[in-house]
Amino acid sequence: MDRPLERRAALRAGVVWDDVRGLPLPEHATVVDIGGGTGGFAVRLAALGHQVVVVDPSPDALAALGRRAREADLASLVTGVQGDLSDLPDLPGLPGPADLVLCHGVLGLVERPEPALAALRDLLRPGGTLSLVVAQRHAMVLARAMAGHFQQARLALEATAPDPAQEGRFTADEIIALLVEAGFGVAAVHGVRVFTDLVPAGLLDLEPGATEALLELERAVAVRSEYLALAAALHVLASG
């Protein structure tokens, strides 16, 4: 992966990883990563001593996950299972009740979030943690306007129902209400990528230290509620 892509990946995942890494998990925790792909989070969690099962529909992604785990000498702690969120909770190969379930960028892809959240709760032990990342509804208006697509921005602003052709997006109030209805207790809601998607890539490539400074800025605003409506995504931590 070239440096610009590495920088973007670090910015997109950095704040979420800070939250996940800071969770008070037990030693050798059981973790299920729904839609975990090639293991960007899974391998790092395994490096902390946790047992991680990645559920993903892509055989290629799971093969890359296996290679990544072997290269890190963590193959015994990382398992790949082919499937997706709609297959839960009856998917073969899942561990017993999990201490932590990750569901990053997946909930918006299912037709109905309510049964999906119920299935995620069933994966958790009592008191376990769900780490949920969803696209944030208001950010679409800002992103389209910044790109010069003003009519599309107006349509997004006035939309009263989600577009079935696009990933589902949620406001903070909407996702909190869905989680509470599913039986979760919401512990925190943080903004993700408040500025990252709006900063020209060339600026990060040319300005020394720009990536690190932007990541620190993202960390600073992630916990400020007044910036949630600007964030491209929301990271919610909830207990089962």
Structure description:
The chain has helices at residues 3-21, 42-47, 59-71, 113-123, 137-146, 150-158, 172-181, 201-206, 210-222; strands at 30-34, 51-56, 78-82, 98-104, 124-136, 169-170, 185-192, 233-239. By secondary structure, it is of the alpha/beta class. It has a single domain, classed as Vaccinia Virus protein VP39 (Rossmann fold, 3-Layer(aba) Sandwich), CATH 3.40.50. Strands 1, 2, 3, 4, 5, 6, 7 and 8 form an 8-stranded mixed sheet that branches. β2 (51-56), α3 (59-71) and β3 form a beta-alpha-beta unit. α1 packs parallel to α9 (210-222) and α5 (137-146) runs antiparallel to α6 (150-158). The radius of gyration is 18 Å and the shape is globular. The protein starts with a helix and ends with a strand.
Summarize the structure.
This protein has 240 residues and is α/β, with parallel strands linked by helices.
Question: Which terms summarize this structure?
Answer:
single chain, 240 residues, alpha/beta, Rossmann fold, 8 strands, 22% strand, globular
Low-confidence sequence ranges: none
Spatial extent as radius of gyration: 18 Å
CATH topology: Rossmann fold
Taken from the alpha-carbon principal axes, the silhouette is globular
CATH class: Alpha Beta
User: Domains counted in the coordinates: how many?
Assistant: 1
Beginning-to-end CA distance, first to last residue = 37 Å
